[in-house]
Specification:
Blueprint lengths: L8 H26 L10 H55 L6 H24 L1 E2 L2 E2 L4 E6 L8 E6 L18 H54 L3 H36 L1
Antiparallel strand pairs: 1-2, 3-4
Helix pairs in contact: 1-5, 2-3, 2-4
Length: 272
């Protein structure tokens, strides 16, 4: 083996290999500390791009599930208000039936009508004051925008909630001041009950649709999180094994570099 003063090839080779080992060791430590296999684009550019796309889908799906849940809350608020209106209308049926009977005095008919008009006023108040998150419920459209982040996966689910004002229910002109008027009012009240009942049925169907959409979005989000994790998560057992390997290689590399540097001492001994 020839000896050279100008270049210590063995030392250069050992130093280069030690640098490679140090870089690999640092990468293993980064993966251990972060728990992620991909910590920068240089680790896996394609995997990072796929993972980022999946994470965007997850964000859209999570918000979509929340959108659907909020819409369900609004529709359930409407249904609760309609249940109260139904109770008021049922009382109105009793009053109209009582008022349709002959033999009532004027004072009695007036008292019956006064209570009925109070019920009609309460129905109107419910129609105008019922709101969800500061927005009116009746006479507005309640909908949920759901999306998985793609154009084809975008759907809007909603329902135009029918106004239940006394005018809409045709109760504003009804009176119970006489038997004949009460009988006419009873027909209108029965029709109003049917209208409210039909609206509650439609609301219930929309709620079921929104709940199903929320469940689908949640399940899809969970599956995408798993897929993204499979791409980016570090295999800890493998990383630990590599870290141990690189630790040993660092020690042997340092030892090899020391031995290569000692070759220069051989030249000095020749000159003595």
């Amino acid at each position: 083996m020839s000896l050279s003063i100008l270049n210590n090839i063995s030392a250069l080779q050992a130093e280069n290999q030690l640098s490679i080992t140090n870089a690999a060791a640092n990468k293993s430590l980064q993966q251990l500390s972060s728990g992620s296999r991909i910590n920068s684009g240089s680790d896996d550019a394609a995997g990072l791009a796929i993972s980022d796309g999946l994470n965007a889908n997850v964000a859209a799906l999570n918000q979509s599930s929340l959108n659907a849940t909020n819409a369900v809350g609004a529709l359930q608020t409407a249904d609760g208000a309609l249940a109260q209106i139904t109770a008021l209308l049922n009382r109105a049926v009793t009053l109209a039936t009582e008022g349709s009977n002959t033999g009532l005095s004027t004072a009695q008919s007036t008292a019956i009508d006064n209570e009925f008009q109070s019920l009609v006023t309460q129905i109107g108040n419910i129609n105008t004051t019922t709101n969800f998150n500061g927005a009116a419920i009746f006479g507005s459209t309640i909908s949920a925008f759901t999306s998985d982040g793609s154009t084809t996966g975008t759907v809007s689910i909603g329902h135009a909630v029918t106004s239940v004002s006394p005018t809409t229910l045709a109760l504003n002109a009804s009176v119970l001041t006489s038997a004949a008027a009460s009988a006419t009012a009873l027909t209108a009240i029965t029709a109003a009950i049917n209208t409210v009942s039909a609206e509650r049925g439609t609301l219930g169907a929309t709620v079921e649709q929104l709940q199903a959409a929320s469940t689908v979005d949640t399940n899809e989000s969970q599956n995408l999180v798993t897929a993204s994790s499979n791409i980016t998560s570090a295999d800890i057992s493998n990383v630990v094994a590599n870290d141990t390997k690189y630790s040993i290689l660092q020690q042997t590399g340092i030892s090899a570099l020391q031995q290569a540097n000692q070759q220069a001492q051989t030249i000095l001994k020749l000159l003595q």
